[in-house]
Amino acid sequence: MDLTQEDLNSLEPFPLAGEWHAFPGEMPESEAEFKALDQKPPQTLAIPGYWVNQNLPAHGVVTYRLKLQVKEPMNLMVYLREASSAYKMYYHNQERGLVLLGSAGKVAKTKEESIGYYLETGRSFRATPSTVLYLQISNYLYSRGGPYYSPILGEVGKTILYLRFKERKKSFFFGAFLVLAVTHLFLFIHRRKDKSPLWFALLCFSWLVRILLFERVSRDWFVGSDFLEMLQIRLEYLAFCGIQIFSLLFFFQIQPHFVPSKFKRILMAPIFIEILIILTTPYAIYTNLLVISQAYMVVILLFAFVAAIRSTFHRESRYIGAYITFGTLVILSATIYDSLVFFKRWDLPLITDLGFGIFAMCLAIVISKQNAHTWETAEYLTLNLRKEVEWKTLELKKEKDKAEKTGELKDKFISIVSHDIRSPLFGISSVVNLLTESPPSLSPERAKQVLGEASTGLKNILSMVEELIKYSRFQNAAVFPDYQLFDFRQITDQLIERVQEMAKPKNITVITHMEDSSIGIGDPNLIEHLIWNLLTNAVKFTKESGTVEVTLTESNKHWSLKVTDTGIGMPNYWTEHVLEEGFLFVRKGTADEMGAGVGLAFCREVADRHGAHLVVQSEEEKGTSVEILLPNFEKIVLILDDNPGYRKQIRKVLKDLPCIIWEEEYPDHALYSVSRLKPDLIIVDFSMPEKTGIDFLRDLYSNPEMEEIRSLLVSSSHTDPNTGTKLETEVIALGGDAFLSKTSPDAKLVEIVKRLLDL
């Protein structure tokens, strides 16, 4: 080998691969015997190379010789990684004579005395123009003898750095795969339902064993012997089979929808056959499976690669599929390259372990995303539960206060209502008794009068019962507003015609002042009940020949419906507290009309559901006015949430914005209402019992007519617990406009709503 043109002070380590002079069957031991080889004709053999590929006998001895040509003496270092047999390496020059650089096993001419063992050799020497390298190998154990890798030659310092890098590489990958195996094993112990961390831990452990055995990290743990050498090789092959098995199990666990389960046994069968052969056959037989095993690993990776690509086309698994696709592509390329390296007998590069390291990190990311998704789901559920508890606590507190007030008023309410019901019932009972007397004691005219009074009392009772039923249903949420456009003027006109019949017996004049065009937004049925309560109360508490005035005007983006009477009015205390929850007052009208005392309470509930306000003004003996202010803005916002507490919270936050706020509790009913009214913005909660907010938006935007409606998704979590993807990404992909966490400050919600409504 001519090194006269090289700068030996900066000679980078390079393999001494190529053709060497070889002397099969020769095993010189002394300097004279080595010099005697110069008198014998050599053969030309390749290093590295198996003996069987060079027409040498399977068992025997070969001495290789390489002459170095240098211009001047220089310190060099030679490194021999491994050989398939026992070996010795020498160098010879005129200055030092014959010097042993290193050896492994026992080189001998007989099969019984020759002991082979994998061992690395690295030593420096001073190269001179007469330096010759000798490599002796004896092979009596393996069917394939010869150098496994070519020797490395280089400048001493650079070669030492090269060897340090190799050791650090082995230590790094050994530590990395040990950490991955242990951490994911503990992850599986913590959460046994998901077996993907277990298969991944065993996959990393199998590669860890391969590093220990293939890289001979464990070579200093035992005394060199043929038995341990053969055991390490057998375990190395088993570790490679383990990599195949646990890779398959991992892919079937992670991608069950894209890897048909029927292929699981089919793909596993060849691996178990290979394991059986490795466990039961001699070295010379099972090592012939290496080509098949490498090729089958490529088949497995191609199978996983195709499944991973398929998964990237599905929204729920595109991210996981992308990571697995990339990792599989890397390890597939590394496996093919590793196979080429092995069969060409090159030095295995860093890319082999690095490729598997990248592959392992991609799989670890997949597991981490799955577990992050699990923890995110748990955090999401915990946060939702906490919010629910907070809202339920507030609601329970309100209910408790309400129950206490109700308890205080219950006796009073029962006594008043029972008295008011008992009196007409007693009168009706008396009339029935008089009419059933024989002979009758009443004249026909008197009987007619008594029956008229009884009929009036019965109507009062029915009216009271109807009021109680309506209020009770509304209190128990049995009635939910059905929002739509309605004509305020039309509803009011119809009710005034009906109330005129009540006003005639008292000679009460009903005066109206109403806008011609008065289109409002709300539930017309509930609004009708509200106006009817206000009108009947006004007539009930107005004296004979009094007046009831009804005005309907638009003021400051609100419809104002005011009912004013000249009746008996209310005390100041009643006026101040009449709209408070739990407040009760029951009194008869000016013509002894009865009521249940829940009319204004019902009106207050209807107003609250519509975001309206009731204003009550009254003065004793002068009259009362009740005004309802119903929003009439151009912008409409729908709040869809099954939690009434959160709906009220959003309504409270947005109360100062010029928009009509409309609440919905059920997604299907909301879709029905949206199709009728088409709001400008929908604020939808992600977590609902019937369907998620994402499902609602998907149904909404499937209708082309709804594409212009803007939407804001709110949730306690930033990710979808069903898919693990970001909710903001899903909303935008569906055609929505924004996402907001429920933990965000109120000002953030107001800011987003203003932006989406162009306010």
TrEMBL record:
<keyword id="KW-0597">Phosphoprotein</keyword>
<dbReference type="InterPro" id="IPR003661">
    <property type="entry name" value="HisK_dim/P_dom"/>
</dbReference>
<keyword id="KW-0812">Transmembrane</keyword>
<protein>
    <recommendedName>
        <fullName>histidine kinase</fullName>
        <ecNumber>2.7.13.3</ecNumber>
    </recommendedName>
</protein>
<dbReference type="Pfam" id="PF00072">
    <property type="entry name" value="Response_reg"/>
</dbReference>
<keyword id="KW-0472">Membrane</keyword>
<feature type="modified residue" description="4-aspartylphosphate">
    <location>
        <position position="685"/>
    </location>
</feature>
<keyword id="KW-1133">Transmembrane helix</keyword>
<feature type="domain" description="Histidine kinase">
    <location>
        <begin position="416"/>
        <end position="634"/>
    </location>
</feature>
<feature type="transmembrane region" description="Helical">
    <location>
        <begin position="266"/>
        <end position="285"/>
    </location>
</feature>
<dbReference type="InterPro" id="IPR001789">
    <property type="entry name" value="Sig_transdc_resp-reg_receiver"/>
</dbReference>
<keyword id="KW-0808">Transferase</keyword>
<dbReference type="GO" id="GO:0000155">
    <property type="term" value="F:phosphorelay sensor kinase activity"/>
</dbReference>
<feature type="transmembrane region" description="Helical">
    <location>
        <begin position="237"/>
        <end position="254"/>
    </location>
</feature>
<feature type="transmembrane region" description="Helical">
    <location>
        <begin position="321"/>
        <end position="342"/>
    </location>
</feature>
<dbReference type="InterPro" id="IPR036890">
    <property type="entry name" value="HATPase_C_sf"/>
</dbReference>
<dbReference type="InterPro" id="IPR011006">
    <property type="entry name" value="CheY-like_superfamily"/>
</dbReference>
<dbReference type="InterPro" id="IPR003594">
    <property type="entry name" value="HATPase_dom"/>
</dbReference>
<keyword id="KW-0418">Kinase</keyword>
<dbReference type="InterPro" id="IPR036097">
    <property type="entry name" value="HisK_dim/P_sf"/>
</dbReference>
<feature type="domain" description="Response regulatory">
    <location>
        <begin position="636"/>
        <end position="757"/>
    </location>
</feature>
<dbReference type="Pfam" id="PF00512">
    <property type="entry name" value="HisKA"/>
</dbReference>
<feature type="transmembrane region" description="Helical">
    <location>
        <begin position="198"/>
        <end position="217"/>
    </location>
</feature>
<feature type="transmembrane region" description="Helical">
    <location>
        <begin position="291"/>
        <end position="309"/>
    </location>
</feature>
<dbReference type="Pfam" id="PF07695">
    <property type="entry name" value="7TMR-DISM_7TM"/>
</dbReference>
<feature type="transmembrane region" description="Helical">
    <location>
        <begin position="171"/>
        <end position="189"/>
    </location>
</feature>
<dbReference type="InterPro" id="IPR005467">
    <property type="entry name" value="His_kinase_dom"/>
</dbReference>
<dbReference type="InterPro" id="IPR004358">
    <property type="entry name" value="Sig_transdc_His_kin-like_C"/>
</dbReference>
<dbReference type="Pfam" id="PF02518">
    <property type="entry name" value="HATPase_c"/>
</dbReference>
<dbReference type="InterPro" id="IPR011623">
    <property type="entry name" value="7TMR_DISM_rcpt_extracell_dom1"/>
</dbReference>
